[in-house]
Structures are given as structure tokens and as C-alpha cells.
């Protein structure tokens, strides 16, 4: 009887040790919480998608509300973004695009945001598919506000 209890105790302790040693560990990277606001020509932009793409790994996404606020989600209901350098894209809504569309950049100043349907705002490509935006996400809370301009600024060479 004593050996049965000893054997049972050994099995239970072994199973407990395996569970505590990382068999249930996560492969999720370190995340930082990311929130912010997106404006276009000093006005909040709603219904667009903000994507943070790390140098390696899964991107995090968030959608702006009526006031232009967003919060990134890493996976399902897990808030955050992978810590480190991220390329940022401000994109039209991927789920049917009821709020915005993308416009291509030109060499000269762009006209004011085009509205193809009521409520739709054009997002210049240099914030989207050809994004020049970057963010360095740190552990803990991060705030990244993006103040976009619909006009491309053209620099003219100065004569000396």
C-alpha cells in the first residue's frame, strides 16, 4: 500500500513539475500597449486602420473611432504591439472600407482630401502603402499620435 501511494505521489509531482516548467509557456513576444490619435489636416479621422508592422513577426492593428482614437490589438483580444522598431501604415478600412480610400502621392501638392462618397476620406500613399512612418514601441504604455496632411510638401531648391 505504501508503494502505491509513493508511486501515485511521484506521478502527481511529475505532472505538476512539467506544468510549472514551461510546457504551457507562450511563444508571444514582449508587448507594449499602444494608443493614439490620427488626424488629417488637423481633423480626427474615423474608421481607418492603423497597422504597426515590426521588423520581424506579426503586425498589430487598431481602428480609429469618431474622435480619431485607436488602440492596437496584437492577437484576438490581446492588446498591444511587439516591442521594438515598427513600420506604421495608416490604411483604409480593410473590412469593406465605409470610411476612407487611398490616393496616390504626386510630385506636386495634392488637392484637399477627395471624398468619393459621404464620409470617405482619402489617405495619401506615403502614410499607407508607401509609408514613411515609424515607431519605436517600448514595454509599458506608449502613445503615438499621427498628424497627417493631405497635401504633399514640395521643396524647391534655393538659389545662392
Textual characterization of the structure:
The protein is mainly beta and 160 residues long. It has one domain: Immunoglobulin-like (Sandwich), CATH 2.60.40. It is 14% helix and 38% strand. The protein contains 1 helix and 14 strands; from the N terminus they run αββββββββββββββ. Strands 1, 2, 5, 8, 13 and 14 form a 6-stranded mixed sheet that branches. A 4-stranded antiparallel sheet has the order 4-3-9-12, with no helix packed on it. A two-stranded antiparallel sheet has the order 6-7. The protein is elongated and about 80 Å long.
Write the layout of secondary structure elements.
Elements: H1 2-23, E1 31-40, E2 43-44, E3 49-54, E4 60-63, E5 69-71, E6 73-75, E7 78-79, E8 81-82, E9 84-91, E10 100-103, E11 121-124, E12 133-137, E13 140-143, E14 146-148
Parallel strand pairs: 1-13, 1-14, 10-11
Antiparallel strand pairs: 1-2, 1-5, 1-8, 3-4, 3-9, 6-7, 9-12
Short description:
With 160 residues, this protein is mainly beta. It has one helix at residues 2-23, and strands spanning 31-40, 43-44, 49-54, 60-63, 69-71, 73-75, 78-79, 81-82, 84-91, 100-103, 121-124, 133-137, 140-143, 146-148. It has one helix and 14 strands.
